[in-house]
Amino acid sequence: MAETGQIVEAGQLTRRAVEAISERHGEPRWMREFRLDAFEAFERLPWPTTRDEKWRRTDLSGLKVDELTPFAEAPAGPLPAGLRMTVDAFGAHSGLLVQRNSVAVHADLDGQVRERGVVLADMHQALREQPDLVREHFMRYVRPEKSKFSALHAAFWTGGTFLYVPPHVEVALPLQSYTWIDSERVSIFPHTIIVAGEGSKVTVIDGFGSLTAEYQAFADPIVELALHEGAQVRYVTMQDWGRNVWEVGIIRSALARDATLNSLLVGLGGKLVKADVESVLQGPGASSEMLGLVFGDGRQHYDIQTLQEHAAPHTTSDLLYKNAVKDRATSVFIGMIRVHPGAQKTNAFQVNRNLILSDGAKAISDPKLEIMANDLRCTHGSATSRLNEEHLFYLMSRGLTRAEAVRMVVEGFFAELFERVPLERVGAQLHVAVAAKMTE
User: Fold this and answer.
1) Is residue 343 part of a domain?
2) Do 406 and 276 share a structural domain?
3) Pick from 328, 326, 276: which is nearest to 304 by CA?
4) Single pTM value for the model
C-alpha cells in the first residue's frame, strides 16, 4: 500500500523533483541517470504549438502542467466504488494490477500462471526484481528525445505495468491493469512494458479512468510492446477519464518474425486526448491488426495519429478506426502507412470512418502513404457522414423514437469493431459505454 504524505509539490517540474521520485523508489543508479538525462531533454525541447505540423489541429495552450504535482500518493482506505465496479465489469482474469494516482495499490496473479514463469508487476517492483529485463526494454521503443512529452514521461514516470510471458507459454484468461486518478491537480506518468516471448500467447486489458473533478489533471502514459518470434498478443486499452483530464500518450509495438498483434484503442473520456499508436513490423511474416473506437461529446477533443511501419518483407497491417462525434466535439485522425525499401510483398490496409451526429461537431481525417518498395498492396481511405434522415424516418416508422433510432444507427456504425474483438466482456462494456454516450 502507498505511504502517506507528498514527496513533490505542485509546480515542481524540477531536477530535484526527479531525484526525489527516484529516491522514493530506491532506484538503481542507471535509472536515476536515465531520468536526469531525460529531464535535460525535457528542458531543452520546446513546448509544441499549433504552428507545429503534428500539433496544428490540437491546441495545448490550456494545459497547465507546471501547476500540477508530478507525483501523488493513493488516499488511504478501500478502492473507490467507481473503480471497483469498473474492474469487476471485465470479469474473470489471470492477473490484475491497480494503480491509484502515482502508486500501485493492488496486485494479484494466478498461482499456476506464476509457476509457468509469467511476471506481472508494477514497474517499480519489476525494476527491483527483474532489473535486467526492465533495463533491456525500458524506453527502447519510445526514446525520450522523441518529443517534449516523451522526455517529460521518462523523467517523471511512476507506476505502470510490467508483463513478461516466457517462450511458448499461453495465458488463457486476460491479464488486466487499471489506472485511476482521484487526486486534485495531479499529473501521472504510468509506463507499461509487455514482453511476449517466442511462441507465447496473451491478452492484456489496460484501463484508465477517473471521475470528473473541478481541477485539471494530466496523464502522460507510454506503452511499449515487444513481440518476439511467433508471439501472439491481444492488447486492449480503454480510456474513460473524467472531463477535467488532459492526456498525451504513446503506444508503440515492435513485432519480430511471424508475430501477431491485435490491438484496440477505445477513447471515451477526457477533455483533450492526443495519442500516437504505432506498430513497427520488424520481422518477415509479422502481422498487426489496429482497431480504434472514439466517441466524443460535449467539447471533447481527440487527436489520434497512427503509424503502420513495414520494415521487413511479407508483413501485413490492417487498420480500422471509427470515430463518432456529437455536440461540439472534435475528432482528428492522421494515419500513415510507411513501407521501407526492401519490404516487398507488404499488405497494408488503412480505413478511417467518421460519423457526425450534431451540426457543431467536427471530424478531420488525413490518411497517408509513404511507399519505398514496389511489390506490395496498400490501400487507404476515409469517409465521413452525417445522420441520414431517411434512415431515421424508416426506423421511426417502425415504432422507434428518434433517440432510439439514432442509438441504433450509432451501434450499427460501431458493430464491425465489436465483431472483430472476440472478448465478450469487453464487447459488453463497449455497448454500455456507447449507450451512455447517447444519453449524455
Assistant:
1) no
2) no
3) 276
4) 0.95
Domain count, the chain: 2
Name, in order, each residue with C-beta under 8 angstroms of 411's C-beta and a sequence gap of 6 or more: 431, 434, 435
Residue 328 lies in a domain: no
End-of-domain residue from the set 232, 247, 282: 282
In a domain, 70, yes or no: yes
pLDDT tens for the chain, residues 1 to 440 = 333 356 776 668 999 999 999 999 999 999 999 999 999 999 999 999 999 999 999 999 999 998 999 999 988 878 878 777 777 777 779 999 999 999 999 899 999 999 999 999 999 999 999 999 999 999 999 999 999 999 999 999 999 999 999 999 999 999 999 999 998 899 999 999 999 999 999 999 999 999 898 899 999 999 999 999 999 999 999 999 999 999 999 999 999 999 999 999 999 999 999 999 999 999 999 999 999 999 999 999 999 999 999 999 999 999 999 999 999 999 999 999 999 999 999 999 999 999 999 999 999 999 999 999 999 999 999 999 999 888 898 999 999 999 899 999 999 999 999 999 999 889 988 999 999 998 87
Is 276 found in the same domain as 155?
A: yes
**In terms of residue numbers, what domain contains 235?**
15-282
Same domain, 79 and 215: yes
Based on the fold, state whether residues 96 and 235 are members of the same structural domain: yes
Can you tell me the distance from the alpha carbon of 113 to that of 125, in angstroms, rounded to the nearest whole number? 18
CA distance 354 to 334: 13
Residues 274 and 405 in one domain: no
Distance (Å, rounded) from C-alpha 12 to C-alpha 69? 7
Residues 6+ apart with CB under 8 A from 312: 257, 281, 282, 283, 284, 286, 340, 343
The answer to the question of residue 361 being in a domain is: no
